[in-house]
Amino acid sequence: MRHANKLVAILCATVSIATHASTTCAPVYLTFDTGHMGVAPLIADILKRHKVRVTFFAAHERTQVGDGSLGTHWASWWKERAAEGHEFASHTYNHVYWRGEKHWNTTLAATYCDELKHASQRLQEMTGKAPLPLFRAPGGRTAPPLLATAKNCGYTHVGWSPAGFLGDELPSEKYSNKTLLDKALRDIRAGDILMAHLGIWSRKDPWAPTVLEPLITGLQAKGFCFKTLREHPELGRIQF
Fold first, then answer.
1. What is the pLDDT of residue 4?
2. Got the DSSP string for the chain?
3. pLDDT at residue 20 greater than cutoff 60
4. Residue 142 in contact with residue 100, Cβ under 8 Å?
5. What ranges in 91-233 are assigned the alpha helix state H?
6. In the list 2, 96, 193, 225, which could disulfide-bond 25, CB 3.0-4.6 Å?
7. Which residue, 71, 89, 206, 171, is CA-closest to 136?
């Protein structure tokens, strides 16, 4: 009986250690902005295979196939991602860039709020899931007036960490996929927000088919785990 109790204690301790290890991984937050969607099915397959959940920032962009990234053609793709537990947020509906303060006025501020809301509403229509009260400005271009406008209509901006810029929009002639992968694995730290796209028109050697899977497995091997922005200790607490 004494030996049995000792065995139970050892097993319980082992389970406790394993559970603690699984909950104390170093989190990183992988995000994707929309793009031409040509690599979207591949990206979804890789994420599903490795049980990685991410946050998608969506705008209605021109696509290689279909009627735009938030169009009818891609609606089922977005719904499937929601069923897998991914999160969603606005990237402005028409992928609107900040053009500078001299162009900013009350009318444009109202239009920008409409852009943020339109993308969120379309995402909810397709996924049946309420998007996060977050947004990413196209190109990451912001200024105090734009951020204040977004805040007034319920949205908080999310950029990316310096090491989290994964470089998939850079020219492949200067920045090879191997170079980008090596840099990411070397520089990413716990808590970083990572950013890539669902396809970049200008990059000749696509990033996702070569880099995404080894990036995921490489970071996991280093003790990182992937979380959505809903699980972020600060951003996840923001509400509309």
1. 46
2. -HHHHHHHHHHHHHHHHHHHHHHS-EEEEEEEE----TTHHHHHHHHHHTT---EEEE-----SSSS-TTSGGGHHHHHHHHHTT-EEEES-TT-PPP--GGG--HHHHHHHHHHHHHHHHHHHHHHSSPPPSEE--GGG---HHHHHHHHHTT-EE----GGGB--TTS-TTTS-HHHHHHHHHHH--TTPEEEEES--SS-SS-SHHHHHHHHHHHHHHTTEEE--GGGSTTGGG---
3. no
4. no
5. 106-127, 144-152, 177-187, 208-221
6. 225
7. 89
pLDDT in tens, 28-69: 999 999 999 999 999 999 999 999 999 999 999 999 999 999
pLDDT score recorded for residue 122: 98
Which phi and psi (to 5°) does residue 157 adopt?
Answer: -80, 145
The tokens for 130 are 């309420």
Place of tokens 């049980």: 51
